[in-house]
Design a protein that fits this description.
Elements (H helix, E strand, L loop, with lengths): L1 E3 L2 E3 L4 H10 L7 E2 L8 E2 L4 H4 L20 H14 L1 H21 L23 H30 L5 H10 L1 H31 L4 H24 L3 H7 L4 H12 L11 H31 L6 H13 L5 H39 L2
Antiparallel strand pairs: 1-2, 1-3, 3-4
Helix pairs in contact: 3-5, 3-13, 4-5, 4-13, 5-6, 5-7, 5-9, 5-13, 7-8, 7-9, 7-10, 9-10, 11-13
């Protein structure tokens, strides 16, 4: 039976209903009643008639960026991201590079003790000028924006997404609280597990040395290295999980740990934690090599005319006690700052790829 606007028609069979539907005389909201039953129900609930009209359930398209990658692909995509986002990387990097350079420039020089006299005097107290405190506070304030901006630039280039620098900056600013809180927990953990053991080691050295104290000193040092290595692994992807996730600081760090330690059964070079450690180590070594390389000419110029260790010590003391840096030192500092500024995006580009690689591996591991 069919009821339309209070009028009942029928009984009819399914063929009649299909014909009425085709003619537009039967729609999903019309009521039907099976013969012998009392319940009326919408015609749309009858799959035999309206099965073809069921709206398709929208399915989320797969994220083609989240996939496993070979070492060759990591290298190739890192270079592509670095080149594609170079100038935007530089803009976000300048947010912290400029105040850090000013901080280094105005940081008080610490005079060296007079080693030629045979007696070592105690180091004088160092008072930081207000501009150093101001620059230090500025670095802390803008660092979350710079870090999040690096992630968004790398992600946009990887996806081929066109977004203005203003939009990327706004996105980084909107993530300020999550980036700041997550970074605070991460670096506070590093600070605790580095300086607390270091303080204990210094206290042991200040006391009377013995075989027991020396063994304890080495044991504390090994424990400090072990804890910081664990923190590095657990915090491997914290910048990405804080920038792209919706969780708070602790859950973002937890996700970072899960991504780093997923697929423990895979070969070592296929595990995210080993890949991250290898790439970070290569980056540090290359950075040190470049810094030494760019500083070498300045060092040669500085040491020209120095013929013995006493003259070298006197030169170092003169530089340390100088009120303001000379032209050669300023040029050396500027070159070093530029190397750091230009080299930092490489690590961000590599780790955004490792982040999506780790997500794909965790998804496959979880089935």
């Amino acid at each position: 039976m069919v009821r339309v606007e209070g009028k009942e028609y029928g009984p009819v069979d399914e063929d009649d209903l299909r014909e009425w539907k085709t003619e537009g005389r039967l729609i999903r909201t019309n009521e039907l009643q099976r013969v012998g039953e009392e319940r009326w129900f919408p015609a749309g609930e009858l799959p035999e008639i309206f099965a073809d009209d069921q709206p398709a359930q929208p399915s989320e398209p797969p994220d083609l960026i989240v996939r496993r990658r070979t070492w060759r692909e990591i290298y190739r995509e890192t270079i592509r991201i670095y080149r594609g986002g170079f100038w935007r990387f530089m803009l976000f990097g300048l947010l912290t590079a400029v105040p850090l350079f000013v901080l280094q420039w105005y940081f008080p020089r610490v005079p060296l003790p007079d080693l030629t006299s045979g007696s070592v005097e105690s180091m004088p107290a160092v008072t930081m000028p207000p501009i150093c405190w101001l620059m230090f506070a500025l670095v802390i304030l803008v660092w979350p924006i710079s870090t999040a901006g690096f992630q968004y630039v790398a992600d946009d280039v990887l996806r081929g997404r066109q977004r203005s620098f203003a939009d990327q900056f706004t996105a980084a600013l909107n993530r300020y609280g999550r980036m700041f809180s997550t970074g605070l927990v991460a670096y506070a953990s590093y600070f605790f597990w580095f300086f607390v053991p270091l303080t204990a080691m210094v206290a042991l050295l200040a006391g009377e040395l013995s075989v027991f104290s020396l063994m304890l000193y080495l044991l504390i040092g090994a424990f400090m290295v072990y804890m910081n290595a664990r923190l590095f692994i657990n915090f491997l992807f914290w910048e990405q999980t804080a920038a792209f996730g919706e969780n708070g600081a602790l859950l973002a760090l937890r996700e970072s740990r899960e991504l780093a330690r997923c697929t423990p059964e895979a070969p070592r070079l296929e595990r995210p934690l080993y890949r991250g450690a290898i790439i970070a180590s290569i980056w540090v070594l290359l950075l040190l090599f470049l810094l030494i390389g760019v500083q070498f000419p300045f060092t040669l110029i500085r040491l020209s005319g120095v013929e013995n260790p006493e003259q070298a010590i006197a030169l170092m003391k003169t530089l340390a006690e100088a009120k303001t840096p000379d032209t050669l030192m300023i040029a050396s500092d500027i070159v070093s700052a530029l190397v750091n500024l230009m080299f930092r995006p490489l690590l961000a580009a590599a780790f955004i790829i490792l982040y999506y690689d780790a997500k794909a591996r965790r998804k496959m591991s979880n089935g």
